[in-house]
């Protein structure tokens, strides 16, 4: 269920531009930012870029994952 929320015009325009670049809806972009922010606050020892990349990777699922191969076993 969606609930209308008032936000600053500048924030809306930033979300619109970023949403277009990342192929999300404006609401989806703002939700993503909120999730990144909440996760970063819950894990202050982690860099924000790591938090963002982790959330993106989890959303992509295992089908796009690159398997880990230890250095000694690379061909």
From TrEMBL:
InterPro entries per the UniProt record, alphabetical: ParD-like (IPR021831)
Pfam families linked: ParD_like
Highest taxon in the source lineage: Bacteria
Protein name: ParD-like antitoxin of type II toxin-antitoxin system
